[in-house]
């Protein structure tokens, strides 16, 4: 999977907005100003940081060497996944979907109503 493929998938989510975090040289994807994905190069490899439950984050890190705690985000919840690694694309898409759903849970009710229109 490429960074472009992942960005296209993220931006297809209802209400997704893209911005650049210049300090981290990363593309942030948010819904109603709540971050759900951050795409960047890590160690010269394409990667994405995604939010999960701490339990899932631990499990993924134990099972896949290409899933690591995110450097600049809460390490209990945010994992960096290398896009060119051993994790199947389908699992990366699943993790994007789960991160998006968690972000929606942190969006105000009014904003969620706007997104459903």
UniProtKB/TrEMBL annotation:
The keyword DNA-binding applies. One of its GO terms (molecular function) is DNA binding. Pfam families: YjbR. SUPFAM superfamilies: YjbR-like (SSF142906). InterPro entries: YjbR, YjbR-like_sf, YjbR/MT2646/Rv2570-like. Keywords: DNA-binding. Gene3D superfamilies: 3.90.1150.30. It comes from the Bacteria. This is MmcQ/YjbR family DNA-binding protein.
């Amino acid at each position: 999977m490429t960074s472009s493929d992942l960005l296209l998938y993220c931006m297809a989510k209802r209400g997704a907005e893209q911005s650049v975090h210049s300090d981290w040289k990363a593309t942030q994807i948010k819904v109603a100003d709540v971050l759900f994905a951050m795409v960047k190069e890590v160690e010269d490899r394409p990667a994405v940081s995604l939010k999960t439950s701490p339990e899932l984050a631990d499990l993924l890190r134990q099972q896949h060497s290409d899933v690591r705690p995110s450097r600049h985000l809460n390490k209990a919840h945010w994992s960096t996944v290398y896009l060119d690694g051993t994790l199947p694309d389908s699992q990366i898409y699943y993790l994007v979907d789960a991160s998006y759903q968690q972000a929606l849970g942190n969006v105000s009710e009014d904003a969620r109503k706007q997104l459903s229109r």
